[in-house]
Design brief:
149 residues; alpha+beta; 8-stranded mixed β-sheet; 8 strands; 27% helix
């Protein structure tokens, strides 16, 4: 699968890119996962955004969060892939690109995520280890996980 990766600060997202990003997150987190929550939480403005384009389709995205905003450590959040490309390995490629980008942006330090529990095995395969108790967020079971550099 040919993916064009772009890493942008919030200020450098075009109106088109921002619309596609928010649309994809809404499509997956609100509609597909049937979870009513406010996605726009005033953190996007302080973060970097990794966008994976397959042609004109925003196929995947993450939000790279500097230390001190969500956790003491840097973080990868709003991990999302389009239903149109699932099963093509985009999730692993997205996380590998995100981890590399975090280290470039914020240094060679630990990365903490709030993972949906059903994805714990996937994140473990990337080197993350559970670092806390299971908790509910917006009605979905999560667990914090930590990746040491």
């Amino acid at each position: 699968m040919q993916i064009n990766w772009q890493l942008k600060s919030f200020e450098h997202l075009t109106v088109h890119e921002l619309y596609q990003l928010l649309r994809l997150r809404s499509e997956v987190f609100v509609v597909e996962q049937n979870c009513v929550f406010l996605d726009m939480d005033n953190k996007d403005q302080d973060c970097w955004h990794l966008l994976g384009w397959k042609g004109h389709l925003l196929a995947a995205s993450t939000r790279l969060v500097p230390p001190g905003i969500a956790y003491d450590e840097m973080s990868i959040g709003r991990v999302v892939s389009s239903p149109q490309v699932r099963g093509e390995g985009i999730g692993r490629a997205l996380m590998e690109e995100s981890i590399t980008a975090c280290y470039k942006l914020f240094g060679n330090n630990p990365i903490r995520i709030g993972a949906q529990l059903y994805l714990e095995k996937f994140y473990s395969s990337l080197g993350f280890k559970a670092a806390g108790e299971i908790y509910l967020e917006d009605g979905i079971k999560h667990v914090e996980m930590l990746l040491m550099p």
